[in-house]
Amino acid sequence: MSTEIRANTVLPARREQITLHTADGLELIGELALPESGQPRATMICLHPLPTHGGMMDSHIFRKAAFRLPALADFAVLRFNTRGTASEAGRSQGSFDSGNSERFDVAAALEFAEFHDLPNVWLVGWSFGTDLTLVHGLDPLVEGAVLISPPLRWSTEEHLAAWAESGKPVHALIPEFDDYLRPEEARKRFAAIPQAEVTGFPDTKHLWVGKAEDALDAIVRTIAPDVPTPLPRTWDGPSETRQVTIVNS
């Protein structure tokens, strides 16, 4: 019997609560979701929106990615709370540092992925997380970046030039009605990265309310183009429904 995949539908996966350890001595709360069996084809490390405006590892696109993509795309999904950020899973140590000390948080996630031999690692940033990706995420382990609603608030021309020189793929997902950067301006700004792809999403706003499926399809198309998209909207196997408690940082 087919089950409609809804916002709180949890598909089968191996899920593990994890702790990331930063070079400056903090412990960060996180979760790793893996395919139920076999090796993942790719790994997405989720860098969440601004915690001072409600961003966390449970921000809805990343929560749905962890609930669905291990089963639908054979992805490993690593999500965590940056320093000082709280979610249902707990609060990470430390305090928000406007994207500066968060470089240690990004490094800790990459070190975890490397130590656990997670394959084909991509950074997937959303809003504030896109600045963390562009400023701190250009690491040899990283295959490429997906940027959801990038405001380019802290990312400088120097950071864009570094990604351009790296040749690593960059795909920016830009809502038509974004609060900070809309498709036409995004194409101008990302022209600094010749290999960057900018895709506009009609009738979509910064928070992607009601548009998570579009974002997940675009992420999968970028990271694993051999996986058919759009992803299934129904599931024929076991599943559960989980109500997530949204915690304010």
Structural description of this entry:
- With 249 residues, the protein is of the alpha/beta class.
- Helices cover 27% and strands 26% of the residues.
- The strands form four sheets. Strands 3-4-6-5-9-10-11-12 form an eight-stranded mixed sheet, with helices on both faces. Strands 1-13 form a two-stranded antiparallel ribbon. A two-stranded antiparallel ribbon has the order 2-14.
- The radius of gyration is 17 Å and the shape is globular.
- The N and C termini lie far apart (39 Å).
Using brief descriptors, characterize the structure shown.
single chain; 249 residues; alpha/beta; two-stranded antiparallel sheet; 27% helix; hydrolase; hydrolase activity; AB_hydrolase_fold
